[in-house]
Design goal:
By secondary structure, this protein is α+β, with helices and mostly antiparallel strands. It contains five helices and 13 strands. It has helices at about 1-15, 20-30, 30-35, 100-110, 115-120, and strands spanning about 40-50, 50-60, 65-70, 75-80, 85-90, 95, 130-135, 135-140, 150, 160-165, 170-180, 185-195, 200-210. A 13-stranded antiparallel sheet has the order 6-5-4-3-2-1-13-12-11-10-9-8-7. Strand 8 (about 135-140) and strand 9 form a beta hairpin.
Length: about 220
């Protein structure tokens, strides 16, 4: 009887505190139902890096495809990933197929920032595993990719920082503020650095469109 009461008390405690980190995170962004209705995200942002100004355009789909167009001063980068294969084009150089190391990172980059919710919230969709550490850390492990560690803000249950490894560097993304778009919270401003925030990139999102038209050709680069 005492064991049954203890288990019942535990369920009451979990319900009262809003469940584990994944459930609190899902509720904080607007709920699984709203996130499940998202099929694509298009975002535009301004960039600041080492005193230079730039722009960013990114397309993501709920099933893990993405396209990134980045420009800072004279530097430009186009990166696409169709869920299996990736392409990269820097400046005027011809595009090339992602190397094994680049593909490893691309497999995880598709779940960067707010897009992590597509991997974290839906076990039936994802290819990989999640783990919970303590009350506020969620570890995402995409098959064939690198590990993301998501640190939730204890007060808001929204991601405060996300980290992953790129070679011998730990990349830290700090999500400074959020905005609500169609009932779902997305980061509005973030900083990305490899250890020294003063040498990192500041990104401010200026436009977000959910479920807009997305052509399959976006996720490849013609040779």
């Amino acid at each position: 009887m005492r064991t049954a009461c203890t288990i019942a008390s535990l369920f009451v405690l979990v319900a009262a505190t809003g469940g584990g980190p994944l459930e609190r995170w899902a509720n904080a962004v607007g709920g699984r139902e709203k996130v499940a209705a998202i099929t694509s995200i298009y975002r535009e942002a301004t960039l600041e890096y080492a005193g230079y100004q730039g722009t960013l355009k990114v397309w993501h789909t709920a099933d893990g495809k993405y396209r990134k167009e980045e420009r800072v001063a004279t530097y430009s980068l186009l990166e696409t990933f169709d869920g299996v294969n990736g392409m990269v084009k820097q400046g005027d150089a011809p595009p090339h197929t992602m190397s094994a190391a680049e593909l490893n990172l691309a497999t995880s980059r598709r779940f960067a920032n707010a897009n992590a919710m597509f991997f974290a919230f839906f076990p039936d969709r994802r290819h990989g595993t999640t783990a919970v550490e303590g009350d506020d850390i969620v570890v995402l492990k995409p098959d064939g990719g690198v590990e993301w560690r998501v640190y939730l803000d204890p007060q808001t249950a929204l991601p405060k920082t996300m980290t992953h490894r790129e070679g011998d560097q730990t990349i830290t993304v700090t999500l400074d503020s959020y905005e609500t778009v169609d009932g779902v919270k997305f980061e509005r401003e973030l900083q990305r650095s490899a250890g020294d925030p003063s040498k990192g990139t500041l990104i401010r999102f200026t436009k977000t469109v959910l479920n807009g038209p997305v052509d399959a050709s976006l996720f490849s680069i013609p040779s």
